[in-house]
Structures are given as C-alpha cells and as structure tokens.
UniProtKB/TrEMBL annotation:
<protein>
    <submittedName>
        <fullName>Diacylglycerol kinase</fullName>
        <ecNumber>2.7.1.107</ecNumber>
    </submittedName>
</protein>
<keyword id="KW-0547">Nucleotide-binding</keyword>
<comment type="similarity">
    <text>Belongs to the diacylglycerol/lipid kinase family.</text>
</comment>
<feature type="domain" description="DAGKc">
    <location>
        <begin position="1"/>
        <end position="132"/>
    </location>
</feature>
<dbReference type="Pfam" id="PF00781">
    <property type="entry name" value="DAGK_cat"/>
</dbReference>
<dbReference type="InterPro" id="IPR001206">
    <property type="entry name" value="Diacylglycerol_kinase_cat_dom"/>
</dbReference>
<keyword id="KW-0460">Magnesium</keyword>
<dbReference type="InterPro" id="IPR017438">
    <property type="entry name" value="ATP-NAD_kinase_N"/>
</dbReference>
<dbReference type="InterPro" id="IPR016064">
    <property type="entry name" value="NAD/diacylglycerol_kinase_sf"/>
</dbReference>
<keyword id="KW-1208">Phospholipid metabolism</keyword>
<dbReference type="GO" id="GO:0004143">
    <property type="term" value="F:ATP-dependent diacylglycerol kinase activity"/>
</dbReference>
<keyword id="KW-0443">Lipid metabolism</keyword>
<keyword id="KW-0594">Phospholipid biosynthesis</keyword>
<dbReference type="Pfam" id="PF19279">
    <property type="entry name" value="YegS_C"/>
</dbReference>
<dbReference type="InterPro" id="IPR005218">
    <property type="entry name" value="Diacylglycerol/lipid_kinase"/>
</dbReference>
<keyword id="KW-0418">Kinase</keyword>
<keyword id="KW-0444">Lipid biosynthesis</keyword>
C-alpha cells in the first residue's frame, strides 16, 4: 500500500545539504512506496504551520528534515492534534541531538532506510505552558548560545559556530536565582548556574549528561548545577564527558513528570535549541504521545 508522506525541510540546515540532496531523497522515498510531497520552510514558525497542514490533509507520514530546531517546530505542529501522523527524521542539521539519541544516522540514505522499514515506537514529549519539546529544555546563560548563533554562521562553520559562541559567553557565566516546585523536590531562591530537563540521553552533542534518561519511562531527567566558579564549572564539565557528574555535590539530579520553575531574574528558556520564552514556566511530560520511525535494532535498546 502506498503511503502519503509530507517532507518538511529547512533549506539552510547542515550547510544546505538537504537542499542539495532533495532529488535523491525523493527518488529513494518514492521507490520505497512513499508518495512524497515537499514543503521548504521559509522562516521561523513555518514548519509548525506546515505540520498542522499535513495533519489537516491526513498524510500518513510527516518527515522532518533539518536540525533540532526544524524537528521541534514539526513536533509543535503535530503534538496538540487528535490525529498525529507517524514522524520520520532526516537529521541533516548542524546539531541533531534527538536523532543521535534514537540512533538515526546523519547519512541521508541510511536515515531514509529507517523510515522505509516503518518500524515505529511511541515516545514521550514535553509540554511547556502551550509549547512542546521533544528532547531538552533548559535555562541559564550557556543554554542561550544555541539560538544566539546566526544561521549563516552555522551554515558556514557547522558545530564550530557553537563552540565559538560558548567561549565568547564563558566570561558572562553568572548564577540565577531559581525556585522549583515538584512532587520530588522543592527549591526556594536557590543560586544555580544552569538547569536542564532532559527527555533523552543526548544533550548538547554529549550522551552522558543524562545517562539514565529514557524516551518511554514517563519521566524527565532534571539536572541543576548549583552556584560554582569558572574552575569548578570546567571541572564538572570534564566529569560530565565521562558520565561521572551525578554524584558531584554541585549537581542536583532527580526524575519528574511535572514541575514548576520560576526565577526572580530574567531567565530565558531553551527548547530543543530554540528560544522558548522566559520563566516562570510549567513543564509537563506527555507519555507515549508521538509515533516515530526508529531503527528496528534500537527498538529494545534506545530506552534502556
């Protein structure tokens, strides 16, 4: 049976690779039994509208081609709909944290193979007030760098653009006053450097920040880095690269499906690498919410 697919792609993602590969991608999908039409995004929010339109037209499959930002917008277009098509990912952006968590390769042909095999799993997603995220939410000065890097710089330099921005922001690294309310923990006006709410184990290009995170356990993994100096921060980052940070006294880690976060400071929120407004916010987990194509071999291992 022929499946109707809508391919929503960001033409500037990943040094414009999707734009170059489009004829080959369409040819492969058509050969695999997917009758595929396309939508090229034209700016911020366009992928949300394109995904909503795909739902109205009752496509069987929606494919997000680009980076984490494109995927986030597509998820926001699908998440609040009563009918949600199966979601495919072609990770051709500068950062592809969520695809990495699912073991979806950056090679476009192999990523297409996963879609064509049609193995699916229902995954959890996060909701923040009236917006959604699929991989990570966070706050603190260094979480802002992913959406402060100009798209042209990302196109030219790729991942290097983020490292450059991170080095630029290090001298401005300051604590914020954070209050958190959940069933598991209550913090009042705590000085913290950064907080992360992880849905998967792949955050910021690293797979050991949230080593116990699962996409199907109905819980976020929440990390809070308490006030520290720059030397301590660099030490904790080095521990994080080895997955040895969870027992550090500066790190608070717990699991939750619902929490309220506020701050007396102006604090911006990062949702899947994109600007998500400012605190206060309420974060809720929606269990088994979106069907997604993954590698058959990862179906029993991606959420271990």
């Amino acid at each position: 049976m022929v499946k109707r697919a809508r391919l929503i792609y960001n033409p500037s993602s990943g040094r414009e690779e999707m734009k170059r590969r489009l004829p080959e991608v369409l040819k492969k999908l058509e050969k695999g039994g997917f009758e595929t039409s396309t939508h090229e995004t034209s700016g911020q929010g366009d992928a949300i509208r394109a995904a909503e339109e795909a739902v109205k037209r009752e496509f069987d499959v929606v494919i997000a081609a680009g980076g984490d930002g494109t995927l986030n917008e597509v998820v926001n277009g699908l998440a609040n709909q009563p009918y949600r098509p199966k979601l495919g990912i072609l990770p051709l952006g500068t950062t592809n944290d969520f695809a990495r968590a699912l073991g979806i390769p950056k090679n476009w042909s192999r990523a297409c193979d996963i879609i064509l095999k049609e193995y699916t799993e229902l995954i959890d997603i996060g909701k923040v007030n009236d917006e959604y995220f699929i991989n990570i939410a966070g706050g603190g000065s260094l979480t802002e760098l992913t959406y402060e890097v100009p798209s042209k710089l990302k196109t030219m330099l790729g991942q290097l653009a983020y490292y450059m921005k991170g080095l630029e922001k290090l001298p401005q690294f300051r604590p914020i006053h954070l209050s958190i309310k959940s069933k598991e923990i209550t913090l009042e006006d705590e000085e913290v450097m950064i907080f992360l709410i992880a849905n998967s184990n792949s955050v910021g290009g690293m797979e050991k920040i949230a080593p116990t995170a699962s996409l199907s356990d109905g819980l976020f993994d929440v990390f809070i880095l308490k006030k520290c100096n720059l030397a301590e921060f660099i030490r904790i980052v080095s521990l994080t690269l080895k997955g040895a940070h969870l027992n550090d006294p500066h790190v608070i880690h717990f699991k939750s499906n619902h929490l309220q976060i506020s701050s007396s400071d102006y604090t911006q929120i990062n949702l899947d690498g994109e600007y998500g407004g400012t605190l206060p916010k309420t974060f809720s987990l929606l269990p088994s919410h979106i069907p997604i194509f993954i590698d058959e071999l990862r179906m029993t291992t991606y959420n271990d």
